[in-house]
Structures
1.
Amino acid sequence: MRRRHLLRAMGASATLGVAGCIGGGSKIVTNVQRDVSVTPGTGWVQKIPDVSEHGGAIQYSVRAKKPFDVYFFVGESQYLAYDDFTDGTEPPETPFGDASVGTSAEEESNTYVASTTEDGAREPIEGTGPYYFVVDHSAYLGRTPPKEHGGPLKAFVDLTVTKKRFL
């Protein structure tokens, strides 16, 4: 009887130990789930803190009725070039940002969708922050000019950024 009780206790301890490693490995640093309105010629911006020390990941989905682009700028200098452009100043360079995260929205059933991957998985964040997540409704890089799709962009943003946590 004591042996059975001891074995059960050991099994429960092993299960809790494994569950703690799997479930407690990340901490959410940014979580946004909201509707946004973006004036033509601008972008909706979410500043994200640096997660480079231990590593981080991003997962997002943005939906709208008009085409748009998503940029993920790594560091202040990349974002400032975008900010200069949307303020009407011609920046010396126009960086794309992290190409593995940023994308142009694709049409799916009369809705334009941009997301981290086709299956919605998290993408690792490379480089040192801060980071800037931008839902763009300007002619930045000439990809989706708003003149062709007049009026403000109304979009739903679902964004989560995590950093690794060591227990």
Note: The chain has one domain: 25-164.
2.
Amino acid sequence: MLEYPLHAANSQFTCKLQFIGQNFSIFKRISGIALKENISIPFSGIYYDPRKCGISVSRNKRYVRKPNYHLKVMGGTDVETGEHPWTVAIYMNDVYCCVGTLISNKHVITAAHCFLREGVKPSLGKCRPKQAITEEEALQHTKIMYGSKCLKRKKFSNCFNSKPMKTVGIIRAQYGRFFRQGCFGGDIALLELEHEINEKDANYICLASRILLNEKFYSIQSVGWGSNRSFSGDSGAGLMVQLHNGRWLLLGIVSYGSSCDKLLQKRAQPLAQVYTNVKMYRGEIDKFTEYFLPWEQV
């Protein structure tokens, strides 16, 4: 089991970021994105309440440590307990696989390519359905770990006093379309948990499609479980923005990008960090999570 703590980094990359499904690119250094004031739609789904989403358990100022590029996301700092309670770890056959994000108290969103079979490397536009774990197999072999900032309390001093992770299985998975279309676009996976998560240390994040926004500028962050390779190794992690009132909003999912190892060793030029634009899949997400606005209900 990995022993690394959760780390966060502001999106101040020296390369190009792109959203799959929308021609939206951000170049050079990024400190913000045009968003809007947080005006929640006054409706609650079965598992999602817009009045509760995106609220960190801990509102304390982050304790900034000197970056350790052997352990953390690029330029990252340690995450406080409860700071990003929606960030989960996805395990396949008891082996750490990907980062995921709680989007309700019963659903997780991550990248579809996380479900490629062992030994198969993702190849944009060239993969086949047989190279992926079936959705039925995923139900048997996938576990979600949540509720702590550390995957294991060991070695790292900032993990000694952390809460132990909790584990839950999944009863439904949806990601097959990505592989049927040759791993080109739609790198999104939706998972339904065995039971609802109501613990205060595991709140869910807000979704952009469920918030009305006025234009303002705020910084963007991504998170990862103790690796400085967020450009290529934190698949499925959320790209998040914090609004003026402190609440967090999910914009995208890490799909693929430049290799941080090669960038740090100056063996490659920065290319792009590509995210799946969550807002483009609003209908699919709402249907899977049973979230319908009053005028959409039959």
Note: The first strand starts at residue 7 and ends at 10.
3.
Amino acid sequence: MLHKTVMLIALVPSLALAGPKEANEAFVKGQAAYKAKSYAEAERLFRKAVNEDSANAQFRLPLAKSMYKQKRYDEAIHELKQLIKIAPTMAAARYQMALVQRKAGMASPLPADQTAYLKEAVGFYKGYLAVAQQDPDGYYGLAETYRLLGEARLSISNYERYVELEKRPKEQKYVKKAKQKIADLKAALAGGVVAGQKPVLSKAAAPYHRKIAAQSIVQGDSFRAAGNASMAADSYRDATLRDPKSLEAHFKLGGVLAETGDLKGAQTALLAANKLDPTSEPIKGNLKKVTETLAKVGEKKKEEESGDLATGLDLLSKSQFEQALISLAKAADAKPNHHAVHLALGTCQLAMDNRIGALKSYGRALVLRPDLSLAHFGLAEVYRL
């Protein structure tokens, strides 16, 4: 739920400022960027803090959240796994992992992946609730996950626990939603659906799932008409999960994601719609537009990436290390998650005998690409020296 993200962010400042000065400064600036919804900038600053003090768990949590806000779920999951290794008892990390896994499951186009993500989410919600038994948000998230998996009775029991615990005035709208979902699920069970039914994400949707999917589409239409594209996308996505064969849900999800600028998500949704009806001209037309726009964006991105990085590599090949360092540092600021930039930066720093800098750059490259043999070789060379 939205308020949980805000609440957990609010807990961080009182705990995190125990590292090096540069890390703390980057962390504070990152918080300001996050609050301003500049998530890419927040990620860059939180990454800087983590690079300065990688053992500080409180720096890594907002880094993962910044990635989550940009819908880069797998990268957020990777950071959270590192965080849980550092701080295995940190309840907030388990809650965030559960949330990201659930959202990743909702966003995945493949039923098998959807189920895998959602089952992981269940495990992390349970782990969180083991130490935060009175937190209503954990029960709401677990109920939502069970609902997506088609576990109606488990979903009902967790919604009921949420309703019992939730006393905050501002959250009563969620209590109302939970009560409605309880009623819908109980009505579905009364219609003959048993607890051992196949998951929501199975190939053929159960009749009551199709009914609720239709309701989600109507809800999405209302949000879209009101100009709330994000909530509309969530509703349409929920409909596709409940009824994977709903042409309308996939088509509308593709449309609203394109409006929000999530072109890859739009392409995935429209490809699913096209698979259901290859002859539909509106679907083919929208898919063509999105695919062409993605190609243009990709070309522009390549041009941007090729600038400082290409210059830096050229200077590096000519042993002009000081000039190369300037270009590569700019490239790293512009593309903090580009493994090739950090690899080149590490090589340049090693050539200039900046072993600490090289160590950090090679390490960052390996975080992004653990299988990068050149980065492993570079680290070995640093340690040898």
Note: Residues 299-384 form a domain with the Serine Threonine Protein Phosphatase 5, Tetratricopeptide repeat fold (CATH 1.25.40.10).
4.
Amino acid sequence: MQKTTLLTIFALSCLSAAAGPVYSCGNGSYSSKPGPGCQRADLPTIGRYSAARPRPTPAPVAAAPAPQRAAVGGQQAAVYHAPAPQPVAAAAPSSRTNSGRRMILEQELANERRALATAQRALTESRTMPKGDGAAYQAHQARVSSLQSDVLDRQQNIQALQRELSRM
């Protein structure tokens, strides 16, 4: 009996702590303790996962016709139609940000092209080297395959950067 009473008291004290006031202290900073420059935040209760009932708002007189009346059970009831959803245009980045991004992408593209030329040169030189036999040959083949994958990676990076630049 004492255990359940103690457990109930503990649970209730936790609930009261969770329902305590919240204070807003500046930009995006919240606290449970009031401090200098803090104001009590007006936050909705936690745990309401269902949406509130939409309330019909009267439309502007010039923009929409009056609501239609429909007979429901012998009484007149106002029927409101939801307004047509407006397409939301994606906010275009500013031209300054766009031009800065373009410059960065072009610089990365130039760096990747230089790295591709270097990787291709190293691959060509590695292929012309004498091959040898045994362990030396296997090491040479591993180096050639590594250089081939480097060249392929650089080519794919260049294609990705070109695609990104074409989207701008």
Note: The longest strand covers residues 68-72.
